[in-house]
Amino acid sequence: MTRVFTNTTTTSVWLSYFLRPPPSPSVVIPNRLSPFFSAHPKQKFSTLTAMDARVSVSAKEVSQGLDVENEEEFASQSTLLKEFASLSTIEKAWVFKSDNGGSSRAMFSVGQPNLLGNKKRTYMLSSHIARESNGSVSFQWAPFPIEMSGGSTIVPSPSGQKMLVIRNQENDTPTQFEIWGPSQVEKEIHIPKSVHGSVYTDGWFEGISWSSDETLIAYVAEDPFPSKPVFDGLGYKKRGSTEKDCNSWKGQGDFEEDWGETYSGKRRPGLFVVNIVSGDVHIVDGISKSLSIGQVVWAPKNDDSDQYLVFVGWPSDCGSEKIVRKLGIKYCYNRPCALYAVKASLPKSETDKLETKGDRTQDKTAAINLTQGISSAFFPRFSPDGKSLVFLSAKSAVDTGAHSATDSLHRIDWPSDGKPRMSHKLVDVVPVVKCAEEDCFPGLYCSSFLHNPWLSDGQTMIMSSYWRSSQVIVSVDVLSGKVSRVTPNSSASWNILALDGDNILSVSSSPVEPPEIKYGYSTEKKEWNWLDISSPVSKYSTKVRSLLSALQFSVMKIPVRDASVDLTDGARIPYEAIFVSSKTRKSGACDPLIVILHGGPHTVLLTNFSKNHAFLSSLGYSLLIVNYRGSLGFGEEALQSLPGKVGSQDVNDVLAALDHVIEMGLADPSKVVVVGGSHGGFLTTHLIGQAPDRFVAAAARNPVCNLALMVGTSDIPDWCYVEAYGGSKGKSYFTEAPSLDHLHVLYNKSPISHLSKVKTPTLFLLGAQDLRVPVSNGLQYARALKENGVEVKVIVFPNDVHGIDRPQSDFESFLNIGVWFNKHFQ
Ligand SMILES: CC(=O)N[C@@H](C)C(=O)N[C@@H](C)C(=O)O
């Protein structure tokens, strides 16, 4: 994670391969396809004037890789993209009860890309929430936000009286823990790197939990650095010699496996407790070093002095005798994991630690596996009365091998004496939904849980979940298992931020409406009402508002074309595509269309606001965002219909969605381009190979082009097997040493096997540090296209990982996508 927002400046390496003769250095009149220009002739004029005044360049002086023809286009489009790229996003919120009856206070964490600094700026904005006697609610905002500089994360204490600020530091500098009171820092604790490395704040292993008396904080941090061999002029230096000696150097020592993409070089997550009164830190005992730890919470206090912690543990061998290493975990919910309980206190003595039982020696402090009957358990949450431990499970993903699948929710009734046992009965609260009938609950698909997700009845949890192409907020009664959708039945998307007592603080947005805060309350009739809350963050510029007000969107149901073949019921149900277009149609002509494809393949593109998509639609394109079968949010059978059929079923689903909008008269078949990343790049490159006459241009971000190459270089070789062969075969065939037969199948399922048919000009955006789909995949395919005389442009971002989401790289990527598409419609 730290690598994503490093302070280093990105210098993009431009490898422009224009096989056509170099364009003449004439000034290009912005083409007719861009409504940005046609809708705002004055802006166009002023942009060009500004450009003329600022730069007067000869063809030779133009930036490397930027053809002169496109420079005007670059300048104009970047002005538009800047409008969207610098918008702020509300990411988290905390609500604190006020002493004063009906009111409360909220703190919002807001993120904004800092393009010049190439990192994300995070700031805090506070508000007072007042509930009036007439039932209305008003938010009074602090006049200015405050930037959180250098802070890795903040975690308020349960009472809201204290706040922990963690500052992870580079190199050998100790990690800083600051305990803040209402007006000042009350305590500062520096934890040297010899105790542990950086605290995990990645949103997955991350777990930072205050004890109920607010004296202890349990958290997850990297194990300390292992000692490394030291050498000097005479050779190896024995232990005890000083390592800081300038006549010696440290060797590398043994290679240590990490969790792959975005975790490169990160050491094992271990469990620690700090006492904020004494400043003492201890590593929690009794946990096998073969477990990676995350998501720790305190168990309810029992009568004993012992306090227990509950955490998630991931085995290093991914729970399989066959697998000898950690496999990539980012986007991969199929890594087995279990909930464990362990005593938080330091062992009192060795005799207390070891007790002889017959001929067996038992470690009384060893962590206990609480969820032995299930292959996956994470996001542990205790009910407010401490009687239930509720958790989410991705057992469907683990058991089938799909990297992500439908979740299920489970409960353990926590022992009344507070002492965890080996065998707890697991109660299924919300099972996996196999076949999601249209407009019915499709199952749970959660990417996070609130720290405190409970309503005051103590049995209702509130959470966000994907529901077909939208994100919605649902309530779940953990005793009855009843799930209810609490957000309106519109097509917009909703994300929960925090609970304010029994009320819900959330954000809602759509492809044509930027995020707005919504405050939900339940009426006496048990219906949810939602209030629009005006906030400084949602004061979007007039330009953004006017561009978006010209757009509309709808969610289309796309009938399954091959419904007659052998399919499960869930795989026959229509899938969806989000169609974004201009409200006004210009004299019967259709705007050009961009087909947008998500990766995974088991993810989904939601009906929420996307700055980059808003930019592309504001350029004058319609968008067709296809949630082909295999996407999250449509039930388990639809999802599981894809593994084994990648490169055919998903490709045909996209083509059927495209035909659907063409048949409806919403798109012109001669004006279609396509873009996708990762598995979406796999689809993009498959489409230009399998349907070479249908796309005017294409753009692929870190695309999977050759599974036979990826299998030997990616952090998730198992993914290649599962998606190519299907779950059960893929899992059993998986090996680190693929046979020739395997490589043959992997190659045949890949876009590279259709390469000879490709003629579509294609832009490649590649992250040189990508461990998921290493840069070699995109480069090999791009070079092969070039060899065949196809027009190709490649941009490699040297410091980017798979997401290519560092602010400057994201900006440069989408600017190039916009320019590339416009260029090929000229
Ligand atoms: C599981 C996974 O990471 N698969 C990749 C090939 C992929 O498509 N990733 C998605 C999540 C992406 O959008 O990057």
Question: Can you put this structure into words, describing what you see?
Answer:
This protein has 826 residues and is an alpha+beta fold. The protein contains 16 helices and 42 strands. The strands form ten sheets. The chain has a nine-stranded mixed beta sheet with strand order 1-42-41-40-39-37-38-36-35, with helices on both faces. Strands 2, 3, 4, 5 and 6 form a five-stranded antiparallel beta sheet that branches. Strands 7-8-9-10 form a four-stranded antiparallel beta sheet, with no helix packed on it. The model is unreliable at 1-62 and 349-361 (pLDDT under 50). The chain binds the ligand CC(=O)N[C@@H](C)C(=O)N[C@@H](C)C(=O)O. Belongs to the peptidase S9C family. This is Acylamino-acid-releasing enzyme. Residues 608-826 form the Peptidase S9 prolyl oligopeptidase catalytic domain. Homotetramer. It comes from Papaver nudicaule.
Structural class from helices and strands? alpha+beta
Radius of gyration: 28 Å
Low-confidence stretches: 1-62, 349-361
Sheet with most strands = 9 strands, mixed
- Helix percentage range: 10-25%
Strand line-up in the sheet with most strands: 1-42-41-40-39-37-38-36-35
The average pLDDT is 89
Number of helices: 16
Distinct small molecules: ligand LAAZK34X
How large is the share of residues in beta strands?
Answer: 25-35%
The beta-strand count equals: 42
For the termini, the CA-CA separation is 40 Å
Shape, please? globular
EC number: 3.4.19.1
Keywords: Acetylation, Cytoplasm, Hydrolase
Catalytic activity: Cleavage of an N-acetyl or N-formyl amino acid from the N-terminus of a polypeptide
Subunit structure: Homotetramer.
